[in-house]
Specification:
Elements lengths: L10 E4 L4 E5 L8 E4 L1 H7 L12 E4 L3 E2 L3 E6 L12 E7 L10 H7 E2 L2 E11 L2 E7 L3 E4 L2 E4 H8 L5 E13 L4 E10 L4 H19 L5 E5 L14 H11 L11
């Protein structure tokens, strides 16, 4: 409503770097790129979509700020080229030395003056595009999906508590890949209504992204665990799932 495109800006930032890592250019509208879904999901490549073909859209977080280094790395922490999707690594004079009294976490994230963020993204012409979190990446039948994308699709289904769903991938030895499990909070108590809700969830995911969950758990309000910042805590919720609802741990094939 009267806001000019160049007014909206983006910054990729984190406490570990005393805030800013990249920033879009003031006075100019940030770039948006349209990426082909297939190379993105199968080969971790950001290939520009043409015309009206199906595409995924990503918003630029801008170029690195002065004094900060940014690179995209693979699982071995080797640098990747432009348009290759990998983990975002950061270095610079404002970078922390580690986490207070968290030696294991420090060792896993800080190495040789670089901080490995756990975020995923790619670079185009020096601009950073963030695609998601490593912890949120699900590999289903050889294709990459981000859990938050699946969860977003379920928010407007009647009967699901908005913002109270989580998609997790549990390795199933029988399948040889991850199996999709949906945990969703609901206030519905009627058995027939709950079965209808499960059917709606399956149909939504199947129709929108051609994915069928192997298991759907409908849970009471406040079952999912949130962090102090109000976000769903995936690690804690996943652990609760394995302790209370699953018949096995990851790698055992027990769902």
């Amino acid at each position: 409503m009267g806001v000019r495109p160049e007014t909206v800006q983006a910054c990729y930032a984190m406490a570990e770097n005393t805030f800013a890592v990249t920033q879009t250019r003031f006075g100019m509208a940030p770039h948006t790129v349209r990426i082909k879904p297939s190379p993105f999901q199968h080969h971790n490549l950001a290939v520009t979509a043409q015309g009206g073909e199906p595409a995924l859209s990503f918003f630029s977080c801008g170029t690195r700020v002065r004094g900060v280094g940014v690179q995209i790395v693979d699982d071995n922490r080797e640098p990747l080229g432009e348009r290759q999707i990998g983990e975002i690594a950061v270095t610079g004079a404002c970078l922390a030395d580690g986490y207070f009294e968290q030696a294991d976490e420090t060792k896993s994230r800080f190495d040789d003056d670089w901080y490995y963020t756990g975020d995923l993204g790619f670079m185009i012409s020096g601009e950073l595009y963030v695609t998601g979190r490593k912890d949120d990446l699900l590999i289903l039948n050889g294709r990459n999906y981000y859990a938050h994308d699946l969860e977003h699709l379920l928010n407007d289904i009647e009967g699901v508590c908005p913002g109270r769903t989580i998609a997790i991938g549990a390795y199933d030895a029988a399948l040889g890949s991850q199996a999709l499990i949906i945990l969703a909070e609901t206030e519905l108590n009627d058995d027939e209504a709950r079965e209808t809700l499960k059917k709606m969830i399956r149909q939504k995911l199947s129709h929108e992204i051609n994915v069928t969950p192997q298991r759907i758990e409908l849970l009471p309000r406040r079952w999912l665990i949130k962090s102090t910042s109000g976000k769903i805590s995936r690690a804690a919720t996943l652990e609760r799932f394995y302790n209370e609802l699953s018949t096995g741990k990851p790698g055992n094939g027990g769902l």
